[in-house]
Amino acid sequence: xxxxxxxxxxxxxxxxxxxxxxxxxxxxxxxxxxxxxxxxxxxxxxxxxxxxxxxxxxxxxxxxxxxxxxxxxxxxxxxxxxxxxxxxxxxxxxxxxxxxxxxxxxxxxxxxxxxxxxxxxxxx
Length: 124
Description:
single chain
């Protein structure tokens, strides 16, 4: 679990019906998109570069997020390479009525810094 002092970026959204699958829970593709966006913002803010997603590794869907619940995405930098940043990303579900939270999805994202032509560029 990501500790508060490790947080690089966080974003909270409400799950609407158009974000859901036929079970009334957050569609997996939407969950990945939410996590990818927060990972990209975290990398860009930390290094003031433009980043693209190189990989999403070991995505685990642990619990559903229902329509009407809050979905909070939290990212932290786990590793810094020459042109890439590895981030651990968590997606949490929160019941807005009672504040109960549960870890819904976790994954590792690798973002690569690119120049104006889309080529990898050093972070430092």
